[in-house]
Amino acid sequence: MSKTSDTATGIAPITSTERFGELDILRGFALLAVFVVHFVGASFYDLPLEESLSESWNADVLQRGAVFLSDWWFENKGNTLFATLFGMGFWVMMERLEARGSDFQRIYLRRLTALFLIGLVHLFLLFPMDVLHEYALLGFALFFMRKLSAPAMLVLGLVLAFVGQPLGDFLAGELVTGERAESRWQEVFAGGSYAEWVAWWPGWHLYLEIERGGLLGWALYILGRFLLGAWIIRMGFVARARELLPLMRRICLVALPLGLVLELVSLLQWMELLPKTDWSDTALHEIGGPILALGYATGLILLYHSNWRGWVAQLAPVGRTALSAYVGHGVAWTFLFFPMGLGMQGRLTPAASMLVALGLFAAFTLAAKFWLARYRYGPLEYLWRWATYGSRPKFRLQPAAA
Asked: Among 50, 129, 160, 301, which is 20 to 30 Å from 291 by CA?
């Protein structure tokens, strides 16, 4: 299909002038959280670590402090914001394409298919913690749930957002029996070649996510946030953001401190520094995480509509190129920690990993600003739009008239 026919029928991509600036800011902040959690986590608990080294870092105030701050401020807040933003983007796209008389179903399903393929490449060749393919699969579920009434969407979204993860994990635990030894994972990680890892990883991933049921809790967790994001746009809350600033201020003043306190207590219970029951730390985290993410979101929107707008607007360029930045951070993560790259696992401390994450995020932020001064979209965003709309969109910006 030619670009001319797309434009004539109203199936042109959404332009930068149609964007909600608030969503770009939130997406940029979510990226920051993901960078920190992934890099600090890789140094401490996501990858194999010698027990003596783990104990040493646990006893070090600086190293334990880096892990503590990452868990308290960012763990599950970045992915909560990202998943909510995905649902918001879905509803924005649906409303705009249907208003133009375009075939939303064909365009959006093609968009999800393209994202799924990008995610598979990222997962099996570049970054073993990819979520893009899972977002795409759950995007199909969101698509088929779009006819839910607004109240049903809100209620189901809230239920899944708060109890979806523990419910899914419980069901997976009841349905799945037996385990494979993790020794092979440790062998491949410790000294395997890239080719060996690529050949072995798909089977292990399918075991963890499908056979062991690991995807079930995560899927319900994410789908709930998708639904809440779609509901937020459906109710016009972002389009009326300036009008709703007083309400957002009240929400922020409650959600931000409450979320911080709940997450702090949960973390201290998990560290066995406060008394707990078998489930209290998990329950507090499942409640406190989304509340703190809401506090972050409303706080950033308030700053965006204040005299601080210039500061928070620095997050917008990397938010507009979030797909490229996310894949880029995954490549950097694998190269830094895996033996086929620098093999820094066990040598890079959690505190150093946090500095690397912050530095890498700053570099992507500057690169995005430089890139968008010359191009309309990030490199992967451009390819994704091309696949979505079936025609090649304009890439370069027109030079300003003299």
From this structure: 129
The one-character DSSP state at 394 is: -
Q: What percent of the chain has pLDDT above 90?
A: 57
Q: Tell me the two tokens of residue 137.
A: 């699969």
- Dist. CA 309–CA 302, nearest whole Å: 9
Q: How far is CA 159 from CA 143, 152, 204, 251, in A?
A: 19, 11, 31, 20
**Parts of the chain with a pLDDT under 70:** 1-19, 46-51, 171-192, 212-213, 399-402
User: Using CB atoms within 10 A of its CB, is residue 243 exposed (0-12), middle (13-18) or buried (19+)?
Assistant: exposed
Count CB atoms within 10 A of the CB of residue 71.
Answer: 22
pTM: 0.88
Token output for 13: 């991509």
Q: How far is CA 307 from the centre of its chain?
A: 28
Helices (H) and strands (E) in the chain, counts: 18, 0
